[in-house]
Amino acid sequence: MAPTSTDKPQETRAGARKVAAVSQLSEKLSRATSAVVTDYRGLTVRQLEDLRGRLRAEGIDYIVVKNTLARRAAVDAGAAGFADVMSGPVGLAIGYGDLSAPARILFEHFRSTRTLPLVAGLAEGQVLDGNDVRTLAELPSRDVLLSRLAAALLGPLSTLAASLDSPLSTLAATLEAYRDKLAA
Prior knowledge:
Layout: H1 7-31, E1 34-38, H2 45-57, E2 60-65, H3 67-76, H4 80-83, E3 90-95, H5 101-113, E4 118-123, E5 126-129, H6 130-138, H7 142-183
Antiparallel strand pairs: 1-3, 1-4, 2-3, 4-5
Helix pairs in contact: 1-3, 5-6
């Protein structure tokens, strides 16, 4: 069957939608601090919406996209190595803040439901395999790491301050006792 004149505009519109989708995804990937590739098969629509809601609350986008479009977007965003890990049905969790947040939320979901396996990831330009993404998921959040760093730095400083204060206190007490002895 020969194409009719009405087939051309539909193909053009579909092509324009694909170009727009690639452009939008490329822009998101270029702004992202991290991204996680998942295999979304096995999720119900309700589970997917619940997961998207939890991710959205953390400022993370979850996009189900054809792997060919995702590959093009990754190459356009300057992450050609990331394009190589996308095969099969692709769900992308794209985070813009805390580096480990997308991996952590998705891994918690995987642990509780055994659906949505973590295939690969991208963290600050580095391509990660599934095991590296799990390791990233187990890292504490940035705020927790900063508070641990502050506590680690504060401990020795407190000890130093107490060590410096102790001899001065002892010297002051000795001089006070000597003054009292001289006065008596």
